[in-house]
Write a structure and sequence with these properties.
Elements: H1 17-22, H2 27-33, H3 37-47, H4 59-64, E1 74-79, H5 88-95, H6 97-111, E2 115-120, H7 125-140, E3 156-161, H8 171-178, E4 204-208, H9 209-221, H10 223-227, E5 237-244, E6 250-255, H11 260-267, E7 277-285, E8 290-291, H12 294-297, E9 317-322, H13 327-341, H14 347-364, H15 372-383, H16 391-405, H17 407-411, H18 418-422, H19 430-438
This protein binds flavin mononucleotide and iron/sulfur cluster (SF4).
Amino acid sequence: MQHILLRGRDIPDIWKLDVYRQNGGYEGLQKALSMKPSEVIDVVKASNLRGRGGAGFPTGLKWSFIPQSEPVKYVAVNADESETGTFKDREIMETNPHQLIEGALICAWAIQATAVYIYLRGEFWDVAHALDERIAEARQAGLVGDNILGSGWSCNVYTHLGAGAYICGEESALLNSLEGKLGQPRVRPPFPAQKGGGLYSEPTVVNNVETLTNVPWIIINGADAYKQIGTERSPGTKIFCVSGHVNKPGNYELPLGVTFRELLYDHAGGVPGGRAMKAILPSGGSGPIIAVNDAVLDTRLTYEDMAKVDSILGSASIIVMDENVDITWVAAKVTKFFKHESCGKCTPCREGTYWLDKVLDRIMANEAQPGDIELIDNVAKNMQGVTLCALGDFAANPIIHTIKNFREDFMQHMKPAEVPAKADQRKPTNAGAAAATTVPGPLEGKRDTVATGTPARKS
Ligand SMILES: Cc1cc2nc3c(=O)[nH]c(=O)nc-3n(C[C@H](O)[C@H](O)[C@H](O)COP(=O)(O)O)c2cc1C
Ligand code: SF4
């Protein structure tokens, strides 16, 4: 299949303006400029394109929220890409940058924005410098700046580097950071698309890099063509960032609706050494962890199907763990990340992540106190749905879902006297039973008694 987004893999040097233009580059912008802004929004709406930043919000609908009567409007491109295991936006910006610039300009035309700001995480300084050069070339060619392609419409494009904070990927924190303020989420409403809620209080569309890179293709080929790819509710291709215990980690651009089995075994080459796949984090650290079985492997990767396995597609940063991984260690590691990245603005997230980390440290040191598993489960559940931004939920997920799906791994860290007392609450698996009877001491034998009964690929 020809790539829509990772075209650098099909066309050498497409990052160069002349090569991009020889391959249809900026024809989408030209076509959009010949349409009314509202018609452009209608096409994107009809395509059912959904935001690739994590939430899957319909892109055309988001654009339609912008009040056209306001004279000043902005586009903010979210290139923060801070989610653990996510590395797709970087590849787009490095290998096919003009398609992102073109997509952002089409969005700007559709909402009649006066400027586009591409907000990149601080570590992407090299990507930002290269993008600046691409933007300068486009300006030279009359594609950015004053009187774009002779249309009479002017719009500038700027890059802006953050300081490397995960929370600045959250759209309202991103806007604060762009304004030079502390990168903390804002209280909403007003939302970014509304007057008072966007950049410098002006209505602003915030879209992810991958989302906007789809737009030129949609404008050129039409909404119906786009809907031929993927599924009805999740059309198009998606870049799946695959890492962890697979033979061929990397970015895979595939139609939405591909199954875990196809992605992880046919494309990513399965687990090294033929070991069993134990768990998948489908959306980096922020999404609920999944215990792998045949039904999971046959699940389609779409926004709607992931709910069937009690998880989310998110940014599709898929981290694979084999049978040797202690999932308690995963929960502890991810919790440290969220504790570090919590901006501290609201109490449940600030205090909750601190206490989760503290208790997990003692569980990992095999110094757990009776009731520690219930304690962290309770703390995490009390963080859900009560925080200013979704980071509070993200931090609760690893705890709630690892305890739910991998309780036996936690039990391996409990003192021997604790294990029988908790045995009735554990999942009735053979591995669990083995753990209950064979754990000789806090750490001894831990890896040998981890569940191994997960299936590999179907032949
Ligand atoms: C804590 C947190 C971090 C986020 N990080 C990113 C990020 O790095 N990149 C991104 O595109 N969206 C991120 N988001 C989602 C954005 O808030 C927003 O939904 C997205 O940029 C909207 O673009 P889309 O509609 O194109 O998906 C994050 C959200 C939260 C709560
Ligand atoms: S949930 Fe956490 S990261 Fe989000 S605003 Fe509250 S303290 Fe900050």
